Amino acid sequence: MKIIQAPCTTMQKIKEKGIDRSVTPPIVDAIHLNISLPMYEKHVLSNGVELYLFNMGTQDTMMVNWIFDAGNWFEEKNLVASATNHMLKNGTTSRNAFAINEHFEFYGSYLNRNCYHETAEVTLHCLSKHVQELLPVVAELINESILPEEELEIYKKNMQQRLKVNLQKNEFVASRMIEAYLFGEEHPYGRYSREEDYSNLNQPEIKEFFNRYYKNGRLVIFAAGVLPKNIVQQLEASFGKLPLKKHVGPENNLSFHASSEKKFRIQNSVDGVQGSIRLGRYFPNRKHPDFPMMQVLNNVFGGFFGSRLMNNVREDKGYTYGINSYLMNHIQTSALMVSTEAGKDVCEPALVEIYKEMDRLCNEPISEDELSLTRNYLIGSILSELDGPFQVAARWKNYILNGLTEEYFYNSVRIIKEVRPRDLQEVAQKYLNKNEFYELVVT
Amino acid sequence: MLDNGLRVLVHEDHSTPMAVVNVMYDVGSRDEDPHRTGFAHLFEHLMFGGSVHIPEYDAPLQLAGGENNAYTSSDVTNYYVQLPADNLETALWLESDRMLSLAFRKKSLEVQKKVVCEEFKEHYLNKPYGDVWFKIRGMAYEVHPYNWLTIGKELGHIEKAELDDVKEFFFKFYRPNNAVLVVAGHVKSEEVVRLAEKWFGDIPAGEKYFRNLPAEPKQVAPRRKEVEAKVPLDGFYKNWHIYSRLDPRYYAADLITEVMGGGGSSRLYQSLVKEKKLFSNIECYHFGTVDPGLLTIEGKLIKGVSMKQAEDAVEEELRKLKESGIEEKEMVKVKNRTEAVIMFEDMNLMNRAGSLAFYEILGDATLMNSELQRYQDVTADTILEQSRIIFDENNSSTLHYYAKN
After folding, report:
1. Would you call B264 and A101 a contact, using CB atoms and an 8 Å cutoff?
2. CATH code at B125?
3. Which tens digit of pLDDT belongs to each residue from B38-54?
4. Has residue A267 been placed in a domain?
5. What's the CA gap between B174 and B180, in Å, rounded?
6. Across-strand partners of A219?
7. Could you list the residue range(s) of the whole structural domain that residue A384 is in?
8. A208: three-class secondary structure by DSSP
9. B235-241 and B294-301: which strand pairing?
10. Predicted complex ipTM
11. Residue A391 contacts B, CB cutoff 8 Å
12. Which of A7, A13, A300, A337 could be bridged to A23 by S-S, CB 3.0 to 4.6 A?
């Protein structure tokens, strides 16, 4: 990486009106900034469900997040978890889908559902003044959804159509296949949707999943923003008496059936002009001591705009509009991924450069200058990521679901401040070896 | 305002440890030469290739714990930085130097031309339906520069760009008198003014740019186009001319898109996706452009449904609106939704700074505070009247996008 030169005294001729523009104004090193993670207020509803409150912010807006142990980890048949999650808004004993949508939209609120691997969520964003009109209806969805047959048929058909469009996109195919290679198509992390999987969905199975994992399910609730004074009472009134239980998370690890082949090329579109490149390898989960160190190394490698991959593959070669590397946010095990879309004719040269950057991190310690830039950038970005109630809640959510405490946060910050070039080189040698990576190009 | 014409706005918010520096230039793809489109956006990329005294933009900013990005639209080009407030001066130093002058390096131009071409491919060529907007804009705008997209009309225009074009563009548009600087967050007004004066005060003003774009004449007959491409589903796109962002009638047009396409209880979704099952998805939206823009209804047809059936059903919904207007409850709903959107957008410091700059470019930053009231003032009668004017067949451009078997 190119680092800004030290103040250059030979540039006198371009000094203007007494200010020397070639000299960087003094900065407060971000590593000297104090960062603290705002704490939550914790309550337990009378059925044992835990509630984390983040009462902060300046606008009269808020968010409530219901997180169920209902991700695709818990399904016995492909797509049942995501279909059930989607269908939560499609009808209860007293309201049809239209009436549900109309109710939330009338108050200008947003009720979203999301299904992940371990968890499935319902999220409400609303103006604080309206929340009391909305919580009882969310409770109704969780307790009294009827998952109508007709709505399921519409969902199946529309999802099949959407899948057809997505399958034409190289990046869609690449992202799902690399996960299938890494974890195997049977594992929740590697499973993907096919047209027939949608056809095979049926109402009884969805109802059963709903009963077990929502109506009588395990969950944790987060609320953030400018919260009404009686928010705990409101949540207790709507959710405390329901047959819900405390969040546990996945109880057993599932085994992988990873592909034995490591290099793949898929021809997806004949007249496409770009290829999608994906690389991936296993990485332990957040509890592993190498995780925080890897986060720093990943940042240098491909984690931000100033990373080595970005500087080389985009800014120097112009092969791509963007390239990045990241650690997957899984609970059982993570993976280190590299992802980019590059011109069809430069995919192979781009791969060469990606591997070169891995080798460089293994073979040479990074300079103090580059490290200090990385540190400051990371600290600055943590500071900005903690700016706002929803952001604070999101970070805590990640910690709580992974069974971590604020200890983890302060330890990560300490590692960012103290990590040495040779520590990073060691981590690189351990994890950035080319042979360990699965490699896929979809053109 | 500084002597060189740079408008400086400060927004103090001490609930955050961060500061945002937002520089918006009053230039977009509508200001381009029709034979050299995509230039405003290519230029945005070049703004990161080093300035006259600072070889690299990103590194010193990252060293100060900051992040930045930029975007180009048909109307404006915006650059924004967020960093710990203690290091505010670093952002002003960086932004002022690239306003003073770029480094104009040949290598930077060559690389960014390639990067932009890859961006063009990624978003417009390598995706099913990626070329839809080239066709719609071309059909709906015969003379106004909204005829082309910000990315440009064709790859060739970007590939042709020369360093002299870049310099000319810079000194024409990237002058302090054509820009707005907003500093927001954990900052003090007096200090911002002092620093703005220090870093931006001596940048020479440029010649005033008078925008004189050809106005799109009133459309008098329907326009239609059919295309066939390798996509899995038939797509339906119908567009109508609406109003400038500054026109009082804009607010009614915006609310109409909410009535028709805002969320799962909107009219088009409920009737055409849920009840009649003609579309797998349908949306109604507009672009909020400064010059008169387009209101669009777009949807993907369910396999087996004919384009005529689909279009008739859309027209049927429009006819209901034009005949009976909207109910009181629907009106309250779309206004509540608008209020919430504004409140949520304003939660984010960066959004607030960007909006302030945009309203200042529109003519008056204080407009931002009266925006909600303008929506509240829209009546059911106005919605009825505007739906009749807008959804006139003679005002429409329709694209039927067929899946090739």
Report:
1. yes
2. 3.30.830.10
3. 999 999 999 998 999 99
4. yes
5. 11
6. A68, A246
7. 263-442
8. helix
9. antiparallel
10. 0.86
11. no
12. A7
